[in-house]
Design brief:
Blueprint: H1 2-24, H2 26-35, E1 40-48, E2 54-64, E3 70-71, H3 73-82, H4 86-107, E4 112-116, H5 126-138, E5 145-150, H6 157-169, E6 174-179, E7 196-199, H7 201-205, H8 212-222, E8 226-229, H9 235-243, E9 248-249, H10 260-270
Parallel strand pairs: 2-4, 4-5, 5-6, 6-7, 7-8, 8-9
Antiparallel strand pairs: 1-2, 1-9, 2-3
Helix pairs in contact: 4-5
The structure holds ligand C2E and calcium ion (CA) (3 copies).
């Protein structure tokens, strides 16, 4: 009986260790946070560079930690994409936007919120099926909800463009996010079904020496795309962008991403005059 007892205890120990590892694994913790609806959305104001007025915000997801800190998405979004959790996060972000700002969007039809999508969100119409009843219930116009898609999301036009087209047909604006940071050539822009181009922070950081930035801007203009510059930190960057015809900007010069209550207060204060 002794060897059997030893074998059973060893087996129990292995099981316990496995369970512990599972509980501590980042994927398991993220899954737990999703199931408990713990993720939060912060809003980074986007301003009109020519008059300083707030035109809306980008929704940026945050993961509150037990110690009170907030984990930023560049740490857990890649994990979520690799482990099949990303579309559940997107759905929760969309639902949070309406819960946080639905009433506000209804009374401010000129306020726009953009939501980041992952390539996986473009494989089906699930997102559209989620958005349509939310817009109706909160009486928000589809133009008020924009979708940010990176070059990766456009990578396989056969798979994704029907979904992107349907989102646009429903009235949503589509942004190309982080354009120019991928490997595709700039002329690729003319083939993309998009309404607005977001100039990545890496270009805004190096306006003086990145020779490609004016080319991106000229191409966007010739395609009649509006532009939003991200990561604007200084007045001189804002001046340069304004001078080159970029309409909108977001960045720490104006505000970091804020929890919903603070964003609404900021919006009211900025647009009061
Ligand atoms: P992104 O879409 O390029 O978002 C802009 C990031 O730059 C945000 O980081 C924002 O907080 C940061 N930022 C904005 N202004 C400044 C500035 O003036 N200076 C500096 N240093 N940083 C600035 P965040 O919130 O950490 O988001 C990181 C990335 O995670 C985002 O990059 C986006 O790709 C992704 N992400 C965020 N939320 C979501 C989401 O709900 N779904 C998906 N799929 N991805 C998301
Ligand atoms: Ca974005
Ligand atoms: Ca971006
Ligand atoms: Ca970026």
């Amino acid at each position: 009986w002794l060897p059997l007892g030893v074998a059973i205890s060893a087996f129990a120990v292995v099981l316990m260790l496995r369970l512990l590892r599972r509980i501590q694994s980042p994927r398991y913790r993220l899954l737990d946070a999703i199931n408990a609806s713990e993720l939060r959305v912060y809003y980074q104001p986007v301003v009109n560079l020519s008059n300083g007025r707030v035109v809306g915000a980008e929704a940026l997801v945050r993961w509150p930690q037990p110690d009170g800190s907030m984990l930023t998405p560049d740490i857990f979004i890649p994990l979520a994409e690799q482990t099949g959790l990303i579309s559940r996060i997107t759905r929760q972000v969309v639902q949070s936007v309406f819960r946080d700002l639905g009433d506000y969007l209804h009374v401010h039809p000129d306020m726009h919120i953009s939501i980041n999508l992952a390539p996986e969100d473009l494989l089906s119409d699930d997102l559209l099926d989620l958005l349509t009843p939310l817009l109706a219930r909160w009486q928000v116009e589809p133009q008020q909800i924009a979708l940010e898609i990176t070059e990766r999301g456009f990578a396989d036009p056969k798979v994704t463009s029907p979904v992107i087209e349907r989102l646009r047909e429903a009235g949503h604006k589509v942004y190309i996010d982080d354009f120019g940071t991928g490997y595709s050539s700039l002329s690729y822009l003319q083939d993309l079904p998009v309404d607005i181009l977001k100039i990545d922070k890496s270009f805004v950081d190096a306006l003086e020496y990145k020779q490609v930035t004016p080319h991106i801007i000229e191409m966007a203009k010739s395609l009649r795309l509006e532009m939003v510059a991200e990561g604007v930190e200084t007045e001189s960057q804002a001046d340069w962008l304004r001078l080159h015809g970029v309409q909108y900007g977001q960045g720490w010069l104006y505000s970091k991403a804020l929890p919903p209550g603070e964003y609404i207060a900021w919006f009211n204060q900025q647009n009061a005059t």
